[in-house]
Design brief:
By secondary structure, the chain is mostly helical. The chain has 6 helices and no strands. It has helices spanning about 1-20, 45-70, 75-95, 100-125, 135-155, 175-214. Helix 1 packs antiparallel against helix 2, helix 2 (about 45-70) packs antiparallel against helix 3 (about 75-95) and helix 5 (about 135-155) runs antiparallel to helix 6 (about 175-214). The radius of gyration is 18 Å and the shape is globular. Residues about 165-170 have low confidence and may be disordered.
Length: about 210
Amino acid sequence: MSLATAVICSFGVGSALLAEAGGISVDILMIRPDTLGDYMNSPLAVVFNLSLLAGGSCLLLSMVAVFHTYQDGLSRYLAMMGGIVGASIILMGVFPINFLDIHRKVSTLYLFSSIVLHCVCVLDYFKPGSTMNKRMLAFTIMALISGGLLLQLLDWNLLDFPECSTYMPQYCGVSLAMWSLTQANILWCVCLSFHMMKAIKTQQKVVYKWLENY
């Protein structure tokens, strides 16, 4: 399900982004991801928002699998935080930027829950029988850096970010940090899916071996 999350979100975000930008160029990174869900201005807003709904739902289901596959408390806390991230993604699809006040609150929840999730991931990496691997740790660090930058840029009164500079519109730290966090989370989900497959196969082998001996 975490792999489905990555595929669905990548398809929805990519399609809406190409439709908005009109082609592939470096400039597409200057488009804020949340504007792709604007029903008034984004040509594929419906596709983008539906992909958030489907991707968030798949992430929730994958966290249920993590919760039941790994029995230790830290992994289960990781699964619960991942579930909150999934729920916030769903809510961003339900309340896109057209519902500005609610969207700001939901997107702030997504930012906070993503940062907390990846902080737990760092702790989880150093425990025996970790849910994490080295690739997931790399994307976790990437997510923490971009998430930390967004926290610094966040206007706490509005729960929103400042507009890009009109003097240098080609450089927009908010957009770059948003895309960095988005891609880190998507690639983290891809790595999680393959790591989970290995863990489940290992558990199945242990169970089969126990049944044969029994």
